[in-house]
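> call design_seq(struct)
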């Protein structure tokens, strides 16, 4: 299995300035990155067939336990039969990841990297596990390597943005997400991550609007629905 995976409206910034006054000018400055990104999103055509949601495959996949066990057994068999194939180890690492065994997943991804130093999927998947475990510096390193190997693949930039956000490096996060958006416009994962940046900076109103923007592309997009619930409780 191969590893596949917003700036704000101008009127939002104006509204924010009116409501918060000059004391919030610094925060509004931060959102200039978001304005640029969302403009790109809203003006470019959605390519549904080409869109690949990282979330659907890596973060919010729904499998029953029996299917997970079967997938793991199958991946083990393939890796045993093809021990020198980096793809087989990435697939096995992903199966371990879905089963909640991050240590084994990391081991398999590192084996894939040992077999192929320029294998994008291995770095990307390893970065995702590091991100989930909050090993954020390691996650950034893997994302950086992934973007160097495949600079036209949006997923590496998305991972970088996710990791920077958790590190509270918000400017860097928006820059990375902007790059991701240039490569894959209107992707709900990217829009959602920008919403998370707004939410983490305490801007509930803009976070809420960005999550709604994500849902305008996919009304059943669970992370955005959960994001709306979170900001409503704050």
């Amino acid at each position: 299995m191969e590893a596949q995976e917003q700036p704000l409206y101008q009127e939002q910034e104006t509204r924010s300035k009116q409501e918060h006054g000059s004391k919030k000018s610094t925060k509004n400055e931060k959102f200039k990155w978001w304005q640029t990104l969302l403009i790109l999103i809203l003006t470019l055509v959605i390519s549904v067939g080409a869109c690949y949601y990282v979330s659907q495959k890596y973060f919010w996949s729904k499998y029953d336990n029996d299917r997970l066990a079967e997938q793991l057994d199958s991946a083990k068999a393939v890796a045993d039969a093809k021990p020198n194939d980096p793809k087989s180890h990435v697939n096995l690492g992903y199966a371990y990841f879905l089963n909640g065994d991050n240590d084994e997943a990391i081991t398999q991804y590192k084996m894939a990297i040992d077999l192929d130093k320029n294998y994008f999927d291995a770095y990307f998947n390893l970065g995702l596990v590091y991100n989930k475990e909050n090993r954020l510096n390691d996650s950034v390193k893997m994302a950086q390597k992934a973007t160097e190997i495949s600079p036209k693949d949006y997923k590496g930039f998305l991972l970088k943005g996710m990791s920077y956000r958790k590190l509270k490096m918000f400017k860097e996060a928006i820059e990375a997400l902007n790059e991701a958006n240039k490569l894959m416009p209107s992707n709900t994962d990217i829009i959602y991550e920008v919403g998370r940046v707004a939410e983490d900076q305490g801007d509930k109103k803009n976070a809420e609007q960005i999550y709604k923007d994500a849902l305008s592309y996919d009304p059943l997009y669970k992370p955005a629905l959960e994001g709306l619930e979170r900001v409503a409780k704050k």
